[in-house]
Task: structure prediction
Amino acid sequence: MHYPETKLPKVGTTIFSVMSQLAAEHKAVNLSQGFPDFDGPEMIRERVTHYMQSGANQYAPFVGVPPLRQAIADKVARLYGAQVNADTDVTVTSGASEAIYAAISATVRQGDEVIVFDPCYDCYEPAIELNGGICRHVALDLPEFRINWQALEDAITPRTRMIIVNAPHNPSGVSLTREELDKLATLIRDTHILLLGDEVYEHIVFDGQPHNSLLTHEELAKRSFVISSFGKTYHITGWKIGYCVAPKELSAELRKVHQYIAFCTPTPMQLAIADYMNAHPEYENELPAFYQEKRDIFCREIQNSRFDFSPSQGTYFQLADYSQISDLDDVSFARWLTTEAGVAAIPVSVFCEKPSAEMKLVRFCFAKNEDTLKQAGELLCRL
Ligand code: PMP
Ligand code: GLN
Result:
């Protein structure tokens, strides 16, 4: 028996699984993989139990249950001023991951180029390559993690099918400004380039900044798949529910793929989230303060350490430069930190096609209880 050659020669097990496993083996405080160590709102959990106990246990409509699609449409109208049709423009998916895979599979053909910004979340490139596309990495300008417009313009060719924009950005926390959205619009105005907006951290932005969703920009929204995740918003990463908002023509294509990847997502979870969204429209407005407090606790805890950082502007991640602590490369440092210092983190170079040797950054997840953050801070200050 000859097994087929791998279709993904560059891919191994994700850094998130690797680091979480290492953290468990060494009983390290796990600030690596991004997930909260606390539960989501009690009402969501009560509602899901209610729906499971009252017979909502069969397939949902493949595009999502109507009340959840309507709640999503209402939310984007309220927050972004976007008028989207719940029937044709909103699709509920098995996490943002599935929506990203479906959007890419539905539109990227053999030889198409897709531009991503490095450091870049890890699920884009495999999806592009499995569909015969070519991933073009454009490095963000460090240390601000902003788009290098000349590099982006240079990367655009007649074969560019899509640009993937992740804002707020994992791992840096940086958001796009209104001016940057306008600049992007000008750059691609006379092309047929699609946008994929990975906005899973849309409700986690700090210091009073707005989240400038692609949905706030009428011109860009017409060519965008805007993807989000209830996992991040409601502290329920294990439920794997997300959604995509896109014009009906793009949604129709995404749905063709979605119906054969997952068909639909779990019914009781969808109904529970819809109930919660309708009962608590204020929730998204309160989430920034909730996470800003955690950011502030973590930053205060490591203030006297030898890590160098500026407070994250969004997401639940904090980057930190360790060059005063170690000369190790970041992958080795993250392993050492986990096994020897008792705190697990994610190295940033794994999100870059061509990481610079000087980049000595690790990412900490601060979606944790105060005790966890204090325990980690104490260990990090010993270094
Ligand atoms: N995009 C980014 C930038 C993420 O950080 C995550 C997080 N896990 C995802 C997509 C995937 O989200 P989900 O867990 O809903 O699939
Ligand atoms: N998005 C999460 C992170 O950045 C990880 C999700 C996963 O493990 N697939 O840490």
Remarks:
- The mean pLDDT is 97.
- The radius of gyration is 21 Å.
- The chain has two domains: 15-40+283-380, 42-279.
